[in-house]
């Protein structure tokens, strides 16, 4: 038993370091710099190999095999993800191969998360770094996760397997007491993405700030940017459905999204019948459907617009044009042009977005 616990402890530290390095690589991924990012990730991944082998061979008590098996699975998935990224960066160089390799990261996090109530370092890793030393918060999250009865909390899914479209994933903070109305973040994935994956781009921050997080999956392969809008009504229904089960602070309902999700954030969020009070599009463009009068609905609306100066898919001048258009109609605009951001989601911007959303 002692050998097994020691093996778990020996693996956990390099594993969490490697996962933190993946977040850094993901945030700073710019295709021309992919080889450098691979060189930064490789040593962290290599440090996982030997502790993983020791964990797999250590003797474990029967009642703790779940911990061993889960850690081993996360370790193997992490190495596979790193190998796929290194191969894409050093061999193919195709930007979409790079993104596909890192998309596996959501599954790694999903596999690791059930250990958060059991292993405190895991629980702290699933927090905004600035909140990791909040001992009271960590204890409330642990106690809530182990609490029996009451409303369901944690990571929940509704018709949102990865081979399905049109469902959603929901995170309800385990620390929620059951009565307080919570702000709601609705986070939209990018083109070809999935809500079950994009949930993990926001979970650490929602958990740290104790807000509801809804991550829907588009009806089609991306959001309704062309043709009939088949996504707006389901999104409203999802928000209403969550609000029927959990008290939502209707003055703080944020719609945010990445790439196509950012473009659709503005298109859907500026509809007349929208439930969304705040909009935070990232790395998208201003949809042509908003021109010719539609942008007037942005007047007085709180909008947090994020774009990368290195964006190779939607060059930064498109964001500057959107900024000018929104300023012209007197939107309550925060414009964030990030000098080191390419076409990837800036997770480190989430705490600032939540500070903005939660401001009195």
Structure characterization notes:
By secondary structure, the protein is of the alpha/beta class. The model has no long low-confidence stretch (mean pLDDT 95). The chain has an eight-stranded mixed sheet, with helices on both faces. Helices cover 47% and strands 14% of the residues. Helix 1 runs antiparallel to helix 2, helix 1 runs parallel beside helix 3 and helix 3 runs antiparallel to helix 5. The protein is built from 13 helices and eight strands. The N and C termini lie far apart (51 Å). The longest helix has 28 residues.
Features:
8 strands, 360 residues, globular, single chain, alpha/beta
Structural topology:
Elements: H1 2-27, H2 34-57, H3 65-92, H4 95-103, H5 105-112, H6 120-125, H7 135-146, E1 154-158, E2 168-172, E3 182-188, H8 195-198, H9 203-209, E4 212-216, H10 232-245, E5 248-258, H11 260-269, E6 278-282, E7 302-308, H12 316-328, E8 332-338, H13 350-358
């Amino acid at each position: 038993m002692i050998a097994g616990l020691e093996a778990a402890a020996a693996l956990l530290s390099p594993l969490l370091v490697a996962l933190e390095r993946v977040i850094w690589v993901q945030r700073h991924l710019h295709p021309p710099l992919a080889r450098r990012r691979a060189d930064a990730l490789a040593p962290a991944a290599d440090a996982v190999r030997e502790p993983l082998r020791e964990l797999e061979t250590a003797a474990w008590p029967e009642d703790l095999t779940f911990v061993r098996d889960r850690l081993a699975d996360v370790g193997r998935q992490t190495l596979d993800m790193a190998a796929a990224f290194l191969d894409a960066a050093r061999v193919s160089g195709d930007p979409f191969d790079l993104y596909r390799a890192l998309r596996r990261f959501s599954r790694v996090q999903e596999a690791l998360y059930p250990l958060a109530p059991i292993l405190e370092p895991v629980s702290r890793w699933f927090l905004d770094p600035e909140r990791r030393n909040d001992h009271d918060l960590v204890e409330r999250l642990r106690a809530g996760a182990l609490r029996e009865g009451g409303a369901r909390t944690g990571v929940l899914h509704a018709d949102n397997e990865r081979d399905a479209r049109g469902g959603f994933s929901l995170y309800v903070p385990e620390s929620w007491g059951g009565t307080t109305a919570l702000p709601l973040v609705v986070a939209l994935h990018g083109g070809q993405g999935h809500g079950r994956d994009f949930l993990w781009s926001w979970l650490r921050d929602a958990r740290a700030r104790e807000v509801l997080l809804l991550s829907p999956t588009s009806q089609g392969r991306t959001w309704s940017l062309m043709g009939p809008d088949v996504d707006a009504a389901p999104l409203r229904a999802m928000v209403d459905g969550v609000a029927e089960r959990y008290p939502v602070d209707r003055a703080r309902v944020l719609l945010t999204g990445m790439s196509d999700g950012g473009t659709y954030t503005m298109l859907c969020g500026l509809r007349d019948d929208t439930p969304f009070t705040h909009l935070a599009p990232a790395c998208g463009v201003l949809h042509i459907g908003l021109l010719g009068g539609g942008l007037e609905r942005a007047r007085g609306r709180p909008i947090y617009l994020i774009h990368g100066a290195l964006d190779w898919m939607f060059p930064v001048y498109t964001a500057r044009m959107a900024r000018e258009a929104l300023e012209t109609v007197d939107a309550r605009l925060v414009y964030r042009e990030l000098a080191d951001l390419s076409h990837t989601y800036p997770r480190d911007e989430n705490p600032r977005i939540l500070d903005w959303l939660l401001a009195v």
